[in-house]
């Protein structure tokens, strides 16, 4: 899979690329079938919705679940990002977001890179968000919404919202969202929402302002969100636990294209539980960085 | 405006009829311009969103606001309902729902007639919901969602939800919603969401199961929701305050078709405030009904 000049131009202009049905139903099913058992676990890496037992987000499944470990090394996902950055990438964050039928709550308008910069001391925006649909996505089950072109603003002001949902988020204020939407075309394209079958993939810029509504429909909208960071751009601080912001900066080595359907061996370092070190955090920048400075 | 046989058949089958752009931009503007002043009032008839100052729903504006008093007598709205019922109608409920930009919260899946039956002792389903868009409605500003054909089930079991939002609602359980959506076509039409410009109107059956999502967009979605009840079907109990469930069962006398643009005189009984009697309630059925029984 090689991106076309049109795609490269579109990514630069809009801040995202949509690949409907990139993975087959059969491939997606392997992943989706593994979710209930992961969500049932009572572990720190499962964050549940406010006032509900439904999982909002699961972290780091690629370290303890074979199907997701294979997805984390899938060439159809990794190679376009390597191509866009012109550099190897490592896995900065790996989430399976629930947005479950009837229970899935909103994600307020936010950028991801702001958090990575402020909390993780990631030097630049050279990290890519990847969303892979494990369920069909339609207008009723709380799809992702983007403000096209909003990534061009770089990191914008944000407020730490600790109360709206169960997961704290640096949220862009309403006035700025209004301005960005207006500039992107207002009611004519100022908000877009890529929708399509399970197996679809979105690549989106780490500064693209995005949100999603609640899911009142009877249909789950489980998605995998991965953040692939250019290796040279690795984080400089471990202020957040390792299951949220990963500390292994080794380049991803891809498996063959059929890896979701065949049992290629994968390493599962957290198969028997998270190590205590994964919860250890520090407000100080990494030693080697301090020494190099 | 006369309904066609196709429209009558569609209403019977689907439980709703959509009239995009029935009122002009000019007519809608007259109404929308009157909303901020009404919403600013600190009165019992303004219910605000949970944890926010944004108005979720305003009651009974037709009793104290000239533009809305005229809308309540508009032939384009009233006559199709009279035609469907074959009988004069009175105003049972009159709401201006906010669903304000960024602030508008969900309305859970519910039917309206269940409440009217249980609280107000309305004898039959011969009351019609009318929604009139005061803002453009799109997939991003929390549009109404219907389950087509769900009205055929009559009144279904519901649970009184006092906690999800600021307004208590008799809510249909998730399992039944799933079944109704599946029966209506699942992902192929099991949920529908009429969207269109300000001035559009929807008529929908009082047993049609409906909901709406939160509004994360920068666009208000203010709508007028009226409930027109066949005069012979008037409520038999005043368990709810008069500003919520009206007690004047006189047939609506329509104004001319241009009434939103010309200053026809209208009666505004609550112009100088709500009378104390409007807050008086009783769990007993109306005396005259008891005598007649």
Automatic annotation (TrEMBL), chains A, B:
Say yes or no: keyword Oxidoreductase present.
yes
Q: Which InterPro entries match?
A: Phytyl_CoA_dOase-like (IPR008775)
Enumerate the cofactors the protein uses.
Fe(2+)
Keywords in alphabetical order, please.
Answer: Dioxygenase, Oxidoreductase
List the Gene3D superfamilies: q2cbj1_9rhob like domain
Source organism superkingdom: Bacteria
One GO molecular function term of this record is: 2-oxoglutarate-dependent dioxygenase activity
One Pfam family name is PhyH
Q: Per its record, how is this protein called by name? A: Phytanoyl-CoA dioxygenase family protein
Q: What organism is recorded for this protein?
A: Ramlibacter albus
